[in-house]
Structures are given as C-alpha cells and as structure tokens.
Amino acid sequence: MTNNENLLKLIDEVNSDPEKIEQFRSKNSPQELYNYCISIVPGYTYDEFKEFMLSLADLISKNLSEDELNNIIGGTSKPWLNSAAKKFKFMLNS
Q1: CA distances in angstroms from 42 to 33, 35, 59, 61, 79, listed in the order given
Q2: Which listed residue, of 11, 52, 74, 89, carries a Cα 20 to 30 Å from 27's Cα?
Q3: Amino acid 76: pLDDT
Q4: Domain locations along the chain
C-alpha cells in the first residue's frame, strides 16, 4: 500500500464529517471519487489513490478483525470506508 500520508489524512477528514461520508459514498465512478477526495485533501495521484483503495478492499476481503484493520489504517472504526473500498473495487471491475 502506498505510504502517502495525505491518504490517511483524507480518511480522517472524511471520517470527521457525516456529510463528507455521505458524499464519499455517493460517487459513482473511481474518477469521480478521486476528484471529490482530492478536493478535500490534495497531495496524491490517481494511481496512489487507486492503489490505496484496492489495498483496503483486498485487506477487507481477507476478513481481518476490526482491530487488525484499524492497526493498518489507523484511528477508530471506519465501517463506511470498508464499504467504499469494496464499491471502488467493484466500479473498477465493471
């Protein structure tokens, strides 16, 4: 997974605002989601964002415990991120 700290800042920023979570969930394409996210916290490429989201989707599919997942992505439980990562992977494969 990319080591770009701005992606972790993005997750914290979205997690702190229910409206941002809803906007994050509402995006219908990987590019649309990236464009939204880069407007919140810039400083990463589309490829870094894609790698980050796909890595999360892969980790989630391994049925890691919530504690293990939190150790990887940091902070508190982010169930919205789990579903968003799965949706992102699905959108890329569609």
Answers
A1: 13, 10, 24, 28, 23
A2: 74
A3: 43
A4: 5-93
